[in-house]
Design goal:
The protein is an alpha+beta fold and 323 residues long. It contains ten helices and eleven strands.
């Protein structure tokens, strides 16, 4: 904790030095992995500070992070509901004298929702915002090479085998049963499922913990740090899975209004909707393994969603046919 206190003091002093801001009070936010975060009250209003842990963000990742924050700023300027960033000499990744990296932004009001608890009005708003975001990213940001691609079928099966052996060794029957279903899907499918996936800039991390809502709409999208050129389908399936599945059931009304909101800006046919769900299943299949004591709450939730998709893999077209 002494190290954390020293980092906090150095970052706060840097904020005051760079921007002339007086910090009056603060609360540390204990969310996320390794990065330190604070809600600070200042003479310039309520602000949010996020420190970038050097293990999670070594030197080679900083140019990509800066690019993501530059895009975040452009989206804010275009009216997307996301926090206003502070820059110094044109840079959004700020540095203390000792080399601690952090970002400073306005503190946006709103609340995160428990997974699967969004209402239809909130999901319609979310669909509109993501559709608008995809249009803005497509129109205003030059495309770069694909940052990440899906694993091949042989790679998936090799990884599956390691997780299977682990589950057998630890005698975890629940995981073994889920892995048996996963194996059948892998054997019957291949990456040609995803040849029509659209490549573009995407947020790539749109799960419930980083979306702020008020009573009936989205108040802010957070955490653009991972934004990169990947498959934009992830921005469709990830929020649907995170916000619409509760007690192993999906709220079809919430999915329907999300899709309707998205379609105000971009087409979203049934085949693309189903493909996006299957793409996220393929991407996150490796996370289905015996639970470890240190596993995060989001990781546990992603496993539940992966199991739900597998159970409905062959019924997704029928399930969403009326949307």
């Amino acid at each position: 904790m002494i190290v954390h206190t020293e980092i906090q003091q150095e970052i706060f002093e840097t904020i005051s030095r760079l921007f002339g801001i007086e910090i009056q009070d603060y609360n540390q936010i204990h969310l996320g992995f390794k990065n330190l975060k604070w809600h600070i009250k200042t003479d310039a209003g309520d602000l949010f500070v996020k420190q970038y842990n050097k293990q999670r963000y070594p030197d080679h990742r900083i140019p990509g992070l800066e690019k993501a924050l530059q895009i975040h700023n452009k989206l804010f300027e275009e009216g997307l509901p996301c926090p206003e960033l502070f820059s110094y000499k044109g840079k959004y990744v700020l540095n203390t004298e000792s080399g601690e990296r952090f970002v400073l932004m306005r503190f946006n009001k709103g609340s995160t929702l428990s997974p699967g608890s969004a209402n239809p009005s909130q999901m319609y708003s979310l669909g509109m915002i993501i559709g608008n975001m995809h249009v803005l990213l497509q129109e205003n940001i030059a495309l770069e090479p694909l940052h990440w691609d899906i694993q091949s079928k042989p790679e998936m099966l090799e990884d599956w085998n390691d997780r299977w052996k682990e589950a057998i060794a630890l005698e975890c029957g629940k995981t073994v049963n889920s892995l048996e279903t996963q194996r059948k899907i892998l054997e019957q499918n291949d990456t040609d499922l995803f040849t029509e996936c659209e490549i573009g800039w995407a947020h790539w991390d749109l799960f419930a913990d980083i979306i702020l809502f008020n009573e009936n709409e989205v108040s802010s999208i957070l955490d653009f740090d991972r934004m990169n050129v990947v498959y934009t389908d992830f921005d469709i399936s990830r929020p649907i899975l995170s916000c619409c599945i509760h007690d192993n059931k999906i709220c079809l009304e919430c999915v329907s209004v999300f899709v309707s909101g998205y379609r105000q800006f971009k087409p979203l046919p049934l085949e693309k909707l189903v493909r996006s769900i299957k793409l996220t299943w393929w991407r996150e299949a490796e996370w289905l393994r015996v639970e470890k004591p240190g596993d995060s709450t989001p990781l546990k939730r992603f496993r539940e969603e992966n199991v739900w998709i597998a159970a409905h893999w062959n019924q997704l077209e029928d399930l969403f046919s009326g949307i």
